[in-house]
Every structure is written in structure tokens, then in C-alpha cells.
């Protein structure tokens, strides 16, 4: 198995359906596995995923636990050398089969690369960090720097922490989405924005954790 595609989800059935159908349509699954990790779903998500049978690997978490734990669970069971993390509202555009995976994988011709992805941010003090909406990394790098840290609770900024740990270990981050050339749409939806507003206290707390670890 070369690539494991991991999709965490919580009560977002309609956007998850689009996400998965696009992955099925534009991905060669002969050397890949698709791992979906729902948590605390009460909207029919679990029943839908069960109906997909062997098209996916299903790892259900009964309670609502956010992003960090589901991602770790997915990576732990993954059989692939490379891990792809994909948000449930990241929707592939029509494209040649495997184009998106090949674009993510191309930078790994260099052993110096730790993460490739399409959503990169540059923080004034911390430097570059990759958002997990669509990223690839080697499972052995995840094992080397330590899994995603559950101290970040439901997950805000946990991907920034992981990126900074990967960079600290001597690896590079490579943005493959510059100029909007990557064939994927990831909306900054009103649902996401509203959820962030409701979690303002958690976000502030998690920024504090990053500041303690990497400077203000």
C-alpha cells in the first residue's frame, strides 16, 4: 500500500458525500486505501459510510471528539507509506485519475521534504505552517516527530503545531497549490466561520500553547 487517504468527519453528511464521490471518481484505488473516521455523528453519516462497504476503511468513534483524535486514529491504522489528510469539505475538481495525488507526491523526490500541501500560512514569528485541509506526509515522519497533540482539544491549530515540529526536525514544507493550480475546492464556509466564532476561547487557548512552545 502506497497511500492512505484519511478523512475525519462530524455531522457533515452532504459535504462528505461529495468529498468521497469525487475521491472515488478521480483516484486510482489499486494502491491506496480510503480511511474515514466519523466521530459523534447523529445525522446518518455512519449509516451512509456503512453502505459503502469495502470501498472504505471505517473507524467510527462514538463520542464527538473533534479533529485531533480521529486523525491520529486514522494514521495509526493506515497501511500506506504516505498519508493524505483531507477535510470532508475538500472537493476535487474533475481531472485525470490521480492527478491530485501525484501533485502532492512529487516533492517527495527529495528526502528533505516533510509535508506537501495546498494551504500554507506564514506566521510572523513561527514561519511556515501547513493547514491539514489537504496535505501529504510520510507516516514515518509522523512517527518520528510524535502524533498530533491532543492538548489542542477539538483541533484548532493542531496542524500548525505539527508543521512546526516537522520543520524543527529538519524537514521542509512544500506548497503545491500556489496560483490556484491544484484541482480542489475548499470553501471557507459560513459553517466553518460560525464554528470558529463559537470556539473563540479554545482558539485563544491554543494560540497560547503555540506561543509558549515557539515564541510570541
Q: Topology, please?
A:
Blueprint: E1 3-9, H1 13-25, E2 32-38, H2 45-51, E3 57-58, H3 68-77, E4 82-86, E5 91-92, H4 99-105, E6 113-117, E7 120-123, E8 127-130, E9 134-138, H5 139-145, H6 158-168, E10 172-175, E11 184-185, H7 190-198, H8 200-214
Parallel strand pairs: 1-2, 1-4, 2-3, 6-10
Antiparallel strand pairs: 4-9, 5-11, 6-9, 7-8
What does this structure look like?
This protein has 216 residues and is α/β, with parallel strands linked by helices. It has a single domain (3-214), classed as Alpha-Beta Complex (Spore Coat Polysaccharide Biosynthesis Protein SpsA, Chain A). The protein has helices at residues 13-25, 45-51, 68-77, 99-105, 139-145, 158-168, 190-198, 200-214; strands at residues 3-9, 32-38, 57-58, 82-86, 91-92, 113-117, 120-123, 127-130, 134-138, 172-175, 184-185. Strands 3-2-1-4-9-6-10 form a seven-stranded mixed beta sheet, with helices on both faces. Strand 2, helix 2 and strand 3 form a beta-alpha-beta unit. The radius of gyration is 16 Å and the shape is globular. The chain starts with a strand and ends with a helix.
CATH architecture descriptor text: Alpha-Beta Complex
Strand adjacency order, main sheet: 3-2-1-4-9-6-10
Shape: globular
| CATH class identity | Alpha Beta
**Number of spatially distinct domains:** 1
Mean pLDDT: 93
Counted beta strands: 11
Beta-strand fraction estimate: 15-25%
What order do the helices and strands follow? Answer: EHEHEHEEHEEEEHHEEHH
Number of helices: 8
Distance between the termini: 41 Å
Percent of residues in helices: 25-40%
> Sheet bearing the most strands, described?
7 strands, mixed
User: How large is the radius of gyration?
Assistant: 16 Å
What is the assigned CATH homologous superfamily? Spore Coat Polysaccharide Biosynthesis Protein SpsA, Chain A
Please identify the structural class as seen in this structure: alpha/beta
What name does CATH use for the topology?
Spore Coat Polysaccharide Biosynthesis Protein SpsA, Chain A
Amino acid at each position: 500500500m502506497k497511500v492512505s487517504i484519511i478523512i475525519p468527519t462530524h455531522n457533515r453528511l452532504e459535504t462528505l458525500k461529495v468529498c468521497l464521490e469525487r475521491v472515488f471518481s478521480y483516484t486510482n484505488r489499486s494502491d491506496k486505501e480510503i480511511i474515514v473516521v466519523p466521530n459523534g455523528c447523529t445525522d446518518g453519516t455512519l449509516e451512509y459510510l456503512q453502505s459503502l462497504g469495502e470501498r472504505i476503511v471505517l473507524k467510527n468513534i462514538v463520542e464527538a471528539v473533534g479533529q485531533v483524535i480521529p486523525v491520529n486514529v486514522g494514521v495509526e491504522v493506515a497501511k500506506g507509506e504516505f498519508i493524505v489528510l483531507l477535510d470532508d469539505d475538500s472537493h476535487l475538481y474533475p481531472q485525470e485519475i490521480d492527478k491530485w495525488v501525484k501533485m502532492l507526491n512529487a516533492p517527495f523526490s527529495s528526502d528533505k521534504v516533510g509535508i506537501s500541501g495546498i494551504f500554507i500560512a506564514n506566521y510572523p514569528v513561527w514561519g511556515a505552517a501547513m493547514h491539514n485541509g489537504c496535505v501529504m506526509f510520510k507516516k514515518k515522519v509522523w512517527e518520528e516527530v510524535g502524533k498530533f497533540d491532543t492538548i489542542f482539544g477539538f483541533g484548532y491549530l493542531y496542524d500548525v503545531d505539527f508543521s512546526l515540529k516537522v520543520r524543527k526536525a529538519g524537514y521542509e514544507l512544500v506548497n503545491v497549490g500556489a496560483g490556484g493550480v491544484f484541482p480542489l475546492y475548499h470553501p471557507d464556509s459560513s459553517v466553518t466561520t460560525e464554528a470558529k466564532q463559537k470556539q473563540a476561547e479554545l482558539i485563544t487557548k491554543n494560540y497560547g500553547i503555540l506561543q509558549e512552545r515557539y515564541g510570541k
